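Why does residue order matter? Because the sequence determines the fold. Keep that principle in mind as you read this record.
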Amino acid sequence: RNTTIADILLKERLGGGLGLIVAVMAEAGLQGSSKWHGYLRSLPAEGESVPLLWRSPNALKLLQGTELEGKVEEHMADTQSDFEEHVAPLADRYPTRIPRTNGAWSLQAFRKAASWVASRAFYVDKVHK
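Structure:
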């Protein structure tokens, strides 16, 4: 409802976490044209340091002995699959609506938006609404 591509998300039936990530990614790609520009500029330019997106061997060592050990590659494959199957095709279907300049609609941009969402979003169940 609060994104310039809300109608696209509804039409494509993209909701939940994936829909939110796509909305954030689209708004970030609009830069100064987005009503969320000020907020998005306050976020880390390279994305958040979310453990499931860590790549360096030294960082991955920090996950040894935790539930996340060995999950990073699986998560990276899942995000790539989500991007290729659900997100990337939107740019071809809605070329005048999806920001494509400066890598705004790329796997890297998708993962950055996912890191912002993962570090700031939370779920409220029906009992606590």
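The chain has a mean pLDDT of 87.
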